[in-house]
Structure formats: C-alpha cells, structure tokens
## 1
Amino acid sequence: MRIVQELLFIIAFGMAVFLFSTKVRQIRRNILLGRDKDLNDHPDLRWKNLLLLAFGQKKMFRNPLVAVLHFFVYAGFLIINLEILEIILDGILGTHRLFVPVLGSLYPVLISLFEVLAVLVLSGCAIFLVRRNILKLKRFLSKDLNGWPRSDANYILITEIVLMLLFLTMNAADQEMQSRGSEHYIATGHFWISGMFTSLFHGMSDSSVMAVERACWWLHILGILAFLNYLPYSKHLHIVLAFPNAYYASLEPAGEMENMPAVQHEVQLMLQPELAASAPASDTMPKFGAKDVFDLTWKNLLDAYSCTECGRCSAACPANITGKLLSPRKIMMDTRDRLEEVGRNINANKTFTDDGKTLLRDYISEEELRACTTCNACVQECPVSISPLDIILQLRRHLVMEESSAPAEWTGMFSNIENNMAPWKFSMDDRDKWTENM
Amino acid sequence: MIKTMAEYAANGETPEVLFWVGCAGSFDQRAQKITRAFATILEKVGVQFAILGKEETCTGDPARRAGNEFIFQMMAQNNIQVLNMYGVKKIVTACPHCFNTLKNEYPALGGNYEVIHHTTFLQSLIDQGKITMQEGGTFKGKKITYHDSCYLGRANNIYEAPRKVLELLDAELVEMKRCRSNGLCCGAGGAQMFKEEEKGTTRINIERGHEAVATGASVIASNCPFCMTMLTDGVKETGREDEVKVLDIAEMIAANMK
C-alpha cells in the first residue's frame, strides 16, 4: 500500500514538474520573440529595485492597508511553501513528517508559525474576495476584466483559501492522532492553531481521522501541484515574474523616450550630407515603431506576462478616469493575449505562420493609443515595474511613421514644426517679440 | 534689453545661463506673461542671461510623443548644433516639456547641458538670498493650491522646489487629493495640446479644474505653460474664473519681490 502511494506521488510530482517546465520554456521563448534591448547595466541599482520593489513591495504601500493584507498573503504563501519541501520528501520516501527528528523541539514552533501565516493568508484572501466581489471598487468592476480575467482572480483567491484550510485540517487531524498515541503519527509537540481544533475529531474512529488526515495531505499537495501549473495561464504568474521584472525595470528618467538610432542617423545624413559619402549603406529598411509583439522589446513582453491586472494603472490614468477608451491595464492584457496567440501559432506550426492579425488594431485600437497624455501615472502606479506607456509610444511611432496615420490636427502640428519651427503657425521672426514690451 | 546668444558671442562673451523660452513662452499670449515675469526676475536679481531669440526652435517634444521621430530628430539635431556652437553649458527654462527633452533626451544625440527648470532656479536664487519679497504681499494668507505638472513631477521627480518657492509668499498651501506623484495630468501632454480629446465622459482639464477649485483656493499655481492653458479653461468650465486665478509660480514671485 505504502509503495503504491509513493509511486502515485512520484508520478504526480513528475508530471507536474514536467508540464510546468514545458510551459515555462514556452513563455521564455515567447518573451524572447521581442526585440533585443540590453538591460544589464548598473547591477547594483537593479538589485536594489529587486529588493525594494519585488521583495519589499514598496509601490504596494502607496495604499498601506491593502499593502499589509497583500504582504500577509505574499509572505505567508511564500514561507509556508517551505513546508512543501517536507511534504514532497515524505511523498517520495513514504515517510511521515520527516523533519521531526531532525528539528526536534523547533519543529512544532516552525509549523505553528506556518499555521499563523496560513490564518493570515486565509483572512487576507477572504477580505480580497469581498473587495473584489462585494465592495464596488471601480478598478475591479471595469469591463477590462469581463469574462475570464474576473473568474481567474476569484479562482486564485478561493484556491489559496482551500489550500490553507487543507493544511490546517491536516495538522489538526495529525494532532488528534498523536494524542491517541497512534504509532504512525510521530509526536511533534503542540501546534498553536490546529491544536485548538482537535475536538472536531473526538467522536470519530481512528481510521476516519486517519482518512481525513491522508485526504487533506493528498488534496493539499495535489492542489499545490495543480496551482503551479495554473500559474502560467493566469494573472497569478506575477508571483514569479515580479522579481525579474523589477530587476530589469527601466533606470532612465521616466520622462525619457527611447532614442531611435536609425532615424537619428538618417536625419544626420540629411542635415549633413557631407557625411553620406563615408556612411555605410544600410541594406535593410529599418522598421519604425511597433505593430505587433515581435516589434516590442523583450522587456515589454516580460511586462505583459508580469501583469496581475490589478488596474492601479487605469485607476490613475487621466484618459481612463475621464471615460476615454484607453486603459493601460488593457494594453498589457492585450499584449499578453496576442503573445499567447503567437505562441500557440508557433507550437502548432514550428515557426510563426502569418495569421493576418497584429497587436495594433486586432487588439489595440488607434483611438486608445491617441488618448494617452504620456503623463506616466500608469508607470508610477504599477507595483511590478510595468510600463504600458512604452508600448503605447512604440505603437504610436508605427502609426505615424509607417502608416502616416495621425489626426489632422497632428499632421498640421508636424508641418508647423517643420516649416515654422513651432507647433503653431507663427512666423519664426516673431519668436522674440515678447521682449518688445518688457 | 534682453540680449541674444548671438549678441553675446559677437562681443566675445558668454552669459551665465541660457533662458530657453520655448514655443508656448514665445508665442502664446498668456504664456508670454510668464516669460516676461521670469525674465524680469532674472534682470532684477542680476543674473547674466541670454535667449536664442530667432535661433530657438521647437525642442521636438510634441512631435516625438505623437510618434514622429523624424521631426523630433530634425529639431533636436538643429538645436544641439546651435547650442554647441555657442558653447552653452547651463540652460534654464519655464517649460517642463522643454526641460525634460533638453535634459533627458538631448544627451543621447550629443547635447549635454546642465538643464534647470525655472522653479528649481528660483528656489536656488531664494536659497542664495537673492530674492526678497515685499512686506505683506498680494498672496499673504490666501489659499493657494499647486498643480504638479507631469513632466516636472513624475517624469523628473521634482516635487519640492516649486513648493519651497511658494512658501515665500506667506500663503496657505492647500493640496489637492491627487498631488505629487499621484498628481492628475492637465490633459495637454503627449501632444494632446494640439488636438481634440478622444470621446469620453468629460475632458481631463475639466476634471482637474473641478478638483483644484474644490480646494477653496483662490490661486492655482502652475509651473507649465500648457498646464496654464488647460487649467484656465478647466476653471472657466466651473464658472469660477472670477474668483480663482491660474498663475505661474514665476508670475507670483515677480509680482511681489522687491
């Protein structure tokens, strides 16, 4: 019987790890479809961002109450996972609470601390469920989340609550069996939380309590393995990608737009034709701006997978607040959806086969892009270092430079700048006219 | 008489600082008042400065943000050529958009200058004791609210200098709920100034105008000629334009300094 359980466990565990690593490789491949950008400078500043923004969740604390709740859930979930190590080893070796002899009197203290965290995670998730579904918070009511994204958020919270309950029930049943002196249930010492609930099992037979303990153990670990494989399809992937995304966050001033060396060069040749003779002729026409995910940088694509759809960006976006179509959160969700579609295309056809679709227009409309004031509020708000603005601006560059698509007023503004050196139609000679009545 | 870089150069001199006026400051009638106010302060304090005059052109900011990199590069490279020709080291400007472009985007194209926004410049003049105010100035005891422009605030993390300058006015600073890094845009950035807004439930400057008026302040202090236009219109929409004025920080100082 024991060997069957061990075998089943090893098969389940192996499958979970295999499926997860396959999906992780696909996501990595998808991210690397983006154009190259070197983000390895200043490792000191990058590590600092990783510690402050990802580990320390600095941006979350712009709203302290939510930040504390989120920190409980995050810290709890992360730390309780240490317990998974024992569970996995027990599963593979067919042992029960392998670490008890190793840790001695420290063991019940550790488990008790995990239990306290489990209660915090549970309460945090419960409050978040209420916030999402009962309190009418605008960013959670938004149509951005209609359909799958709204369910996704609830599935995550419910799963975490169930996993924590299984963990606590398993421990309570274990404590009860210990008190009955069952040989298999090695004495661990008192667990602070689950130890209070052993009375739930008082009227049950040994075999029933054992069945509960085993069922909880199995459901808990299978639940975790299933959840692991759910991550890559979910907004919850942020628990992993927030870390690299903070590390690779832009270190430039937020107001700086990425330079376009190809255009710089071309304009240089135009302004100083004497340089043209010595300039190497370029044989490929450079592409200007972004039309599809391939034209964005790999960091933009990592951003898309890191987005947890919290909507802080859209709640701060002046365009979104005033009812425009633009929602920075939707920009990120669209980018991920398109990238996933491209990924499935590659899975099916080995290489990407033109599907007649692009991120621009099939996912993100011109009207959305036009509404951006480049105010950086979305970038400022994002707790996981995403820049929706960078994507918006690259798509705008494509519209104007590849398609000459701009509102008429902008076309006028461009020609004013080109001809009168100012966005308005004023004579250059009048530029210093203000000095006359000084 | 305000001299140009060309005039300085003709005498073989270089001024302490170049005052980059910007297109709004040069042509927009309302913004011209800000330009004159700031130039008046510089003259009074005795800062030796020059303008580029007819040689100044758009930095390229609105073209770049609208997506037209070609026009941006044309403007930027021309400006850098002129600035480098005069050996400009230090630039002050009353426009956060010019400030951001000159400071953050010209270095990649070979234009390296110390660029200062006029509010920071005013703060340093105050710190040096060069600006003294009249007794019982026009803003004494009045409620003032300050609007953080996006390109000074979030884009360049300058939140304190303008507020420090406002302290000199002996006024009561009342903050809007959305201030500093949470500040709400006026609606002009990203080349929006030059086109109609997309369809929505309201205009951004109306939203911000209401928020500013709701503080009960009689003056909305701004630091950007585009915010100036947007907020002035926004206040008009609330019907309170007679009681609530939008003023640039430089105008407020110029009106009350000795």
Note: Chain A has two domains: 2-247, 262-429.
## 2
Amino acid sequence: MRMNKNGGVFDITQKIVFWPIAIFIIIIILFAVSGMLFGYRNSLVEIPVQLKAEAVAIRFLNAPECFTYVDEEGIINPGVIEASKFTQDQMYDCYHTPGGTEGAKWLNFKIEIEGYGELKTEEFYEGSIIFPLYKNVLVKDGDNFFGKRMIIYVQEKI
Amino acid sequence: MLIGELLLIGLVATMIFKLAGDYSNSEEIIVEKLADDITLTVNTFIGVPGDKTVSFYWLDLSKYEILLVKDRVIVRGEEGLEVTKYFYVPSNYDLTGQSKNLRDVSLKKTGKKIELKGVGS
C-alpha cells in the first residue's frame, strides 16, 4: 500500500510501532556497551594470579623467616632450604592467613619437597589447585646439601 | 520528523561517548592499580633479603591518600573511593606509613621494617 508522503494514519501508526521498539533496542545496546567497557577495563587492570603467586612464593626460597638457610656468620643463602626449618610451625609463621577477612582474596599454598614431605597454609583445601610452581633448590640436611625440586601448589580463595 | 531521528542518533552517540570517557578516566582504575602495585612490592620485599627502596610512580599521586598498616594497604581517591588490599607477612615484620596529598611515594625496607613515605608536594 503506497504511503501518503504528507503523512497520514499509516505513517503515524508506523512511527508509533517503530519508536518504542527502537528505543528499547538502543537501551539494550547501551547496557551491552557498558558491560563490554567494564569487562575490558577490568581485564586491563587485573594482575594475573600467577604473578601474585610468584611474588609471594619467592619468600619460601629466600626469606630467613621461612625456610632459608642462614649460616653461622648470619649470611642468608637464597635458594638453600634448611631441612630443620621445613616444618608446619615455620610455615604458619612465614605465611599466616587469618581467614575470615570478608571480601578479600588470598592465596593458599601447599609446598612439597621430595623426601621432606609437604606443608600447607592454614586455609588450603585439597581438590582445588589452580596451578603449580616449580623451583630448583638446595636442601641442607645436617652437613650435606642435596639438589631437590620444590613444588608450590597455588590456590586462590575469596 | 527526520529531525527527531537525527536528534535521537545524536543523543545515543553522546551517551556512548560519555560512557567511554567515564570508564577511561575512572579513578577506580588508578586506585585499584596503585593498591595492587604496593601489595606486589611488599610481597617482593619480604621474599628478597636485604634493604631496599622502591619509588612510585609515573602518575601524580597528590590526589590520593595511602595508608600502610601491618596486614593491608588502603588507598583513598579524591572522589571518596577506597580500595583495601591484604597481604600476609611473617610475624616479625613491621609495616607502617602514610602518604597524603604528596606527589610521589616510596617504599623502603630496612631490616624487618617496611615504611611507606610520601615525597614532594
């Protein structure tokens, strides 16, 4: 049916149907664009959990408060693990998560050294490991040094 | 009636540009990023033996307030936004410091003490 160029009943009806639908679609598009921008911005500012885990995990190899061997002269030996310090109490002292901090994300760890067992942080729970970190270490056991691999299992929890 | 369509397109375009502008200039990004960077630095300080100093930052921080305490860092922006990040340090470490309306910030580790200081005006 030919439309009346000067406007008529059909022209008005067409606009009455068209505009609400168009406005509704435009609102949906605006929400979608807003969501995409929000997601993109979050992806730009987020620090990868692997980097966060590495930053925390280096203390297990290098910090005397954790497992690192300190000789009689007080010299810290990074990368050398004192076997007698590889205990659960030392682990809690090295990395203590108080738990119950609402809304906070924190990392849990389980550390294994072959032949020396495994240690866990307080909040670590089995079955939900994100990824492992592998570190080559020396273990000082008495007067002897052994080359071992330290496996640090990482878990993120809210 | 064409004017109506043109006005609507102009309105939608303005709204989309405003949205994009708001997100790109968001204080939320800077506050979040700053708190994350300080947390990473504190964790790295604990893992690396010896005394050291790290200075921040590529941005003028005079609009922000930063507070460092034992187990967390709190960053407050000009628009009232506040972000808290937690870290878990060995028990013999002492963390302290505050920066308010100062351009630059530095983190200094001396022994078992980590101090945050503001620098400049």
Note: The beta strands of chain B are 52-56, 65-69, 72-76, 82-86, 94-100, 104-110, 113-119.
